Amino acid sequence: MSVYYSEDHEWIEVEGDLGTVGITDYAQGQLGDITFVDLPEEGATVAKGDSIAVVDSVKAASDVYTPVSGEIAETNDALADEPELVNSDPEVGGWLFRVKLADASELEELMDEAAYKKFVAGL
Amino acid sequence: MRYLPLTPADRSSMLETVGASSVDELFCDVPEAARLSGPIAGLPMHASEMAVERHLGKLAAKNLDAGSAPFFLGAGAYRHHVPASVDHLIQRGEFLTAYTPYQPEIAQGTLQVLFEFQTQVARMFGTDIANASMYDGSTACWEAILMAARVTRKGKAVLSGGLHPHYGEVVRTMAKFTKDEIVSLTPEMSAQTDDAAVIAAIDETTSSVVVQYPDIMGRIPDLEAIAQAAHAAKALLIVVVTEPVALGLLEAPGHLGADVVVGEGQSLGVGLQFGGPYLGLFGCREKFVRQMPGRLCGETVDAEGKRGFVLTLSTREQHIRREKATSNICTNSGLCALAFSIHMSLLGGEGLEQLAAINHDRTQALVERLTQIPGVSLLSDAYFNEVTLVLPRDAREVVRELADKGILGGVSLGRLFPEQADLHNGLLVTATETVTLEDIEEFAAGLAAVLEGEAA
Amino acid sequence: MSGVNTAGWRPSMNEVAPGDMAPATQSGDRALMLEEALIFELGCEGQTGVDIEAPSKAVSPALSKFRRKAAPALPGLSEPEAVRHYTRLSRQNYGIDLGPFPLGSCTMKHNPRLNEKMARLPGFADVHPLQPQKTVEGALEVIEQLADWLMKLTGMASVAMSPKAGAHGELCGLLCIRAALDARGESREIVLVPESAHGTNPATAAFAGFKVQAIPATPEGRVDLEALKEKLGPDVAGVMITNPNTCGLFEPDLKEIADAVHEVGGYVYCDGANFNAIVGRVRPGDLGVDAMHINLHKTFSTPHGGGGPGAGPVVLSEALAPYAPLPFVTRGEDGEVHLVEEENRGEGHERAFGRMVAFHGQMGMFTRALAYILSHGADGLKQVSEDAVLNANYILRSLEDVLEAPFGKSGPCMHEALFSDAGLPEGISTLDIAKGLIDEGFHPMTVYFPLVVKGAMLIEPTETESKQGLDRFIASMRNLAQRAQEQDESLHTAPHFAPRRRLDETRAARKPVLVWKGDEAA
């Protein structure tokens, strides 16, 4: 099991051919209080880089891009009632969706934790 | 100039502060060639209040206003009595000269009114929620079709032939550009609404079905049957109400299966005003809230825990979502919503019911009297305050001849549907509470004379 | 500051003595600070404030199956209750009638009451949009006379009067462009929009079925001409430019932009939201514009009414004029005013792209705007833009030593002065300044717009502020800037003296409560 990060501040935790995707702690801090999360439909086929979810705060709506291609296996239903999970627990309980990976080699273009930390520090 | 407070002395001292020798220097970024040296030629100079009143008063006097003649027009704009307090209250400067309530701490007046307005509209329509207004009924109708397309992820709307033709025109105009598919049914001179044809036109690709209630000819469709058919095809039923007073008597569309109810709110508080500004009403199921167009006011608390109101869910709107917004609407019909809300507060549910009853009563009297005229018949006996009369000849001429007699005798279907010759003998007439029995007599005498004149 | 309140009058602001704390009141009201319940909490169902005649007959049996089972559950208020409810609510609002309303890009100028009086003449207020034409000739004349003024003030060939507001006017303009392209058999997809544009521009372009491409701004706050030229090509339907732009600056290259766009077969849409800066002094038609909406509720003083209604007529160049939507009012060669609708579109307006509204547009706003225009005349309107620009520059130069003016060095501004949070100490935000201004008794400026300037504060005084009024505003702004430099913590919790403190917008958005449900069983 390993975690990868994108330059758009998504994280993906991969176990077998299933990836769990969310936004990073840094991203939630930038957005402020999350008020609503618009999630993709389960079963949808998505391509790496597609905007497939939207995270709303009071004054902004931010697109979430899938860091990998594949099929949406599951979405986090808990966010419908508690969007604030994305603020309080962004990298565990505040996950957004699970995607069945179409091409594991796409992960190679993402950053590991150390690289992401360095990336954020440079912003 | 009475509206400009700066004195010549102010201007020169301010130019000094600014460091410019003349105001012209401040326009230095405008290319020389485009800078006009003096007032635009060929236009009049400033005028006193008195002179302006005289000019506009003359123009106003050239019109035959509804209060000066027996008046029976409807077709999407209705003349109702507006209580005197409504116009007084909307002219309070704090309402009239306020901006959109983006600074909620100093706009609670407007915001609380919007919250009350949204509740009134939702209860009248029988929908879960309503927004803070659209431009008018026709644009609200188009916005509803777009919302249904977003919700259902399909793009075909079926329009009943009973929909106001101008609303249909607005929808077809917009759809040409957005590439949504619109199926427009042809209106028919029939006692029945086109429910069966609407239901037959629904298929799996249909996103919405648009039905007017009462329809453009004053008839009343069976919403439950249409809702059932729409829902079976996973389409939304959009009900259009152009005369909200009808809902004092008729069941609320939301209680009959409508998913979205839109309408023209002009009847309450706003007045005829030659067509605008009017008030678009928009109500729907709560689950569509994040797909709704327009502003929404919501309840919250302030830092001391006091109840207060704010504009909310703004991430749907153009100033945040830009090209991904649910609509491009910004300025809406705020002051008309206030007028509607005040009028509705004065009426209350009971008053709306009474108002509807007297409207229906007057229309019954009108129908009874006019159908005594040889050659005049009633299209459908299920009506609220508007009916189609079938005349022995083109109603457009009849309307013009009535106007020559100082009678504003309804709207001809020929004006509304110029391309449909089979409707041209139809005359749409409305009687609201403002119509007296004397008006009806005068209308009847005029109509009889006009029609006899033809026979002679 | 010189000139502020020369008589020296100031309300007494004595400190409250320690033992003299304000008591809590039983009602929750505090003298003239009045709280007000919702109508649903005030009234009782079954009451009504309108006396309505009883019907003489029963409801027709043909209606029985359609009858409402119960009247809508809505309270009715007697007239005294209603008047009090709305009067009390009105006092929780700020309006132009109370003081300066310096919202950038909104042009909150004084609303002359003559305009209200004129709009209420029965000949305008009580006529139906579908009356026979010969009974509404005066109303059509108002539309035509206003149209004529708008064309002459902008130097354009035609005007579509029916759009209901600015964004609706933008849509009208873009649909004219689309129709003109269709007539040429071209399906261009791209509309170029500067990053600094109003949100309605990209939203409208998308609504009209175009794809939006952003054009960057130069460090001087103007459209980057070279970047724009690079994007021009056969796919470009047009550009949407705001002039003066949202940074309060004139786009000196507009003519060159227009020429370049025309050269590749595109059209130029101008967002006329800021027309107040140039009205009577510069004609957009001289700068190559093909379409521009005019917000009558900005430049021509029709009241904003707490969010609307507005009116957004669109002036059009020769190239786009044939496509203006119906209904269309025109003065014929016979000197008479004619109304063109679907029925008679063949009479010279057969290429109209369709219809945007049910009736003729915002007649009530037309009357008000025409009254305003006639009052000012060509000379007064020129003075309007000159005073609006002078007032803005006066604010710019009176505050730039205490607030960062990002484009202050590049020359005069037009009718808006733009500042940013760059000079504010860490921890004090633009929002804090805005909320502090509320406590000072002013409506805040536009904040965080345009997006291209971080922490933007956009101040548009308009021409209807006196010098004394501007000096008071400037004095308050300087005081706020000083408190900011002193890290005055109380700014974070401002406003302190408004009917409400800062409101919890996150709570409102997470669990939206949009209608009152107090009478529903829990």
Automatic annotation (TrEMBL), chain A:
Listed Pfam families: GCV_H (PF01597)
Keywords: Lipoyl
Domain Lipoyl-binding: 18-100
Signal sequence annotation: none
Cofactor: (R)-lipoate
SUPFAM superfamilies with a match to the protein in the record: Single hybrid motif
Transmembrane segments: none
Cofactor: record remark: Binds 1 lipoyl cofactor covalently.
InterPro entries tied to this protein: Biotin_lipoyl, GCV_H, GCV_H/Fam206, GCV_H_sub, Single_hybrid_motif
Modified residues (N6-lipoyllysine): K59
Subunit structure: The glycine cleavage system is composed of four proteins: P, T, L and H.
HAMAP family registered for this protein in UniProt: GcvH
Family classification: Belongs to the GcvH family.
Role of this protein: The glycine cleavage system catalyzes the degradation of glycine. The H protein shuttles the methylamine group of glycine from the P protein to the T protein.
Protein name (record): Glycine cleavage system H protein
